[in-house]
TrEMBL record:
SMART domains: AAA (SM00382)
UniProt KW Nucleotide-binding keyword: yes
Protein name according to UniProt: Putative ABC transport system ATP-binding protein
Entry GO CC: plasma membrane
Organism: Actinokineospora auranticolor
GO MF terms, alphabetically ordered: ATP binding; ATP hydrolysis activity; transmembrane transporter activity
SUPFAM superfamilies per record: P-loop containing nucleoside triphosphate hydrolases
Domain ABC transporter span(s) in chain numbering: 5-223
Sorted UniProt keywords: ATP-binding, Nucleotide-binding, Transport
Keyword Lipid biosynthesis carried by entry: no
Length: 225
């Protein structure tokens, strides 16, 4: 079975208007799925539910056949640290740490020794062409470089799913294209699936399949190729 992650009938309200109103999404192993739709349509909330960051009011999320809601908090946190990687619009790197320490962080949190974690971190930074920035702080590198560092950090644990929420949103189109190519190539190399939230058609074009969210509901886009 190549189904990896399934969200179904997801509902979530923060106020009177539901953010998710019966949304669903299925992601296959190694598949890159773009989640598109206008601002405020519920894309980020859908991503957060699928990643076990936000608990839906109703509906289910299963990862590799496991129901996230049935897991203990500890196990869900371990899943997020190990099987999931995250890239956000603003890299969310820790400003006090060097770039290599940032990339090594998920491994360090998982108990890997510093030397081994940083060696692995530098390997990933080399693939993303930012290994020469290892000693710099995030504040000392450009936006495009910081986003490559963030991608290295998301991939260093070789996650099963990378959740990317507007990963190019803060970049110009040249850097955005480069970051997307590196993200997609890295995911293909490791066999990771990607859930890519974007409102830009040009970014969604890197995906295998597009889904549109409107008013908290999802629908599949039929691709004409
Ligand atoms: P998108 O990612 O498509 O822009 P979001 O999922 O961020 O949409 O938001 C969907 C709706 O839910 C919006 O109306 C937004 O204001 C609301 N919302 C999202 N997260 C929260 C939150 N933590 N608290 C209150 N309202 C929220
Ligand atoms: P952390 O370990 O970072 O504190 P948790 O895994 O405890 O995060 O999740 C935060 C909150 O959301 C907890 O109350 C948790 O029970 C709840 N939660 C998160 N994802 C889900 C989910 N898919 N189904 C049910 N509850 C969830």
């Amino acid at each position: 079975d190549d189904t990896l992650l399934v969200g179904s009938e997801l509902r979530k309200s923060f106020g009177p208007t539901p953010a998710l109103d019966g949304a669903g999404l299925m992601v296959r192993r190694g598949e890159i799925v773009a989640v598109m739709g206008p601002s405020g349509s519920g894309k980020s909330t859908l991503l957060h539910c699928l990643a076990g960051i936000v608990a839906p009011d109703s509906g289910t999320v299963t990862f590799d056949g496991q129901d996230l809601a049935a897991m203990r908090d500890r196990d869900r946190s371990a899943l997020r640290r190990g099987a999931f990687g995250f890239v956000f619009q603003f890299g969310q790197l820790v400003p006090e740490l060097s770039c290599v320490e940032n990339v090594a962080l998920p491994m360090r949190l998982g108990g890997t020794r510093r030397k081994q974690a940083e060696a692995k971190a530098l390997e990933w930074m080399a693939r993303l062409e930012v290994d020469h920035l290892g000693g710099k702080r995030p504040g000392e590198v450009s936006g495009g470089q910081a986003q490559r560092v963030a991608i290295a950090r998301a991939l260093v644990t070789e996650p099963k799913v990378v959740f990317a929420d507007e990963p190019t949103g803060a970049l110009d189109s040249f850097n955005g294209e480069q970051v997307m190519r590196l993200l997609v190539d890295s995911a293909r190399e490791t066999g990771a699936s990607v859930v890519l939230v974007t409102h830009e058609a040009r970014v969604a074009a890197y995906s295998d399949r597009e889904v549109v969210v409107r008013d908290g509901r999802t629908r599949q886009v039929e691709l004409v190729s």
